[in-house]
Amino acid sequence: MINFSLEENKVLVRRYLEEIWNNGNLTVVDEIIAEDFIFHRPVGDLKGPGALKQYVGAFHKAFPDIHFTLDNQIAEQDEIVTVWTMTGTHKDEIMGITATNKSIRLSGVSIIRCAGGKVTENTTYWDRLALMQQLGVIPR
Predict the structure, then answer these.
(1) pTM of the model
(2) What are the boundaries of each domain within the chain?
């Protein structure tokens, strides 16, 4: 297996955020996401590129103007820790919540593992309570 530098892995993760999440370019998934990719979430893991495409698609449908700003990145060995801020306007159903047309701003941290020039694993932590409050589902 070819070893990739920390900087190359950071570039890969930036590409993952920019091209897949910000631009919704799902063809890039096949290029940079490993077949055995796993996305760890509190509500259950997603496995494989196809599941990631569906997940990203659902967020782009719900927040068509979704945008992730990369606030910071730290790399060590095969893991890239990325601190990000997400903004968007809620235009369609997500997680059982009908469109509210409200703008949101959330912060989160993703720990992304890379191997062989592919993203293999993503563990993301973000403030679901803040999302529910900003959408008006629960009081602030």
Answers:
(1) 0.91
(2) 6-134
